[in-house]
């Protein structure tokens, strides 16, 4: 039984480490910032996920108490990682205005929000900014 | 800033102190999870914190989140968790075995049918967390999403997949 638990914990740790390593290899190998952005989303999902699952199994199996901190860490990562990635991408577009020409058209009357704003912020019914402005 | 006009608060006392009962409960739960062990004192502090925080921040979200079906929201979470694992394996293969020059990196435009800001936020977050795609920008009117794909040989296929798999389900969760 103890051996089985140790095996599960080890496999999870190795898996998590493997995906974190792949994320790092991606950071080195991929050519520019936007493609490199794909690497950390991987490391934070399966890489950290494997380590956290291993930690939960370890504490539940060996110490006998259920540890839920790991669920919280996962939840906060899933909340914060997309937002930081979004803002890194937006900052990158701001810094390299020449990328603007490479962007595909929005298919709408207005362009991308990094470069364009609405002509009149009051005439749209949605968008976070418009919503925040009303309150 | 001009002086505010006097506001008559039409909300009941209950609504004023608990503008978001579910948020308050979530915060208590979160606090208890952070403590990682149960004690009555911890629970009381959790309730005080939850009530104060949800009251202080209620100005930021005046309306309650419009979720139609919590059961579908849960199954959506499960689907995303599974997709994260599958997509991780695919991107691992790309990173380890595909030369960077042969990656089909491109921008993809996702026309949005979702309208509520909450739904669009969840969709953009989902797209970023599933490896291989990162949502980078929203059109100024909030009706198209700019997605950066690590390897998308077929743009239309990628768009169709994101719409069918995530947006269609989110449309059933948010109005």
Would you give an account of this structure?
Chain A has 135 residues and is mostly helical. Chain A has helices at 2-29, 33-36, 38-63, 69-95, 128-134. Chain A has a domain at 2-85. In chain B, helix 2 crosses helix 3, helix 4 packs antiparallel against helix 6 (155-173) and helix 5 (117-129) crosses helix 6. In chain B, strand 2 and strand 3 (144-149) form a beta hairpin. Chain B is built from six helices and three strands, in the order ααααβαββα. Chain B has a three-stranded antiparallel beta sheet. With 175 residues, chain B is mainly α. Chains A and B meet through helix 1, helix 3 and helix 4 of A and helix 2, helix 4, strand 1, helix 5 and strand 2 of B.
Q: Can you summarize this structure?
A:
The complex is a heterodimer of chains A (135) and B (175). With 135 residues, chain A is an all-alpha fold.
Helix content of chain B: 55-70%
Please tally the β strands of chain B and state the result.
3
What is the total tally of β strands of chain A? Answer: 0
The radius of gyration computed from the alpha-carbon positions of chain A, rounded to a whole number of angstroms, is: 21 Å
* Strand percent estimate of chain B: 5-15%
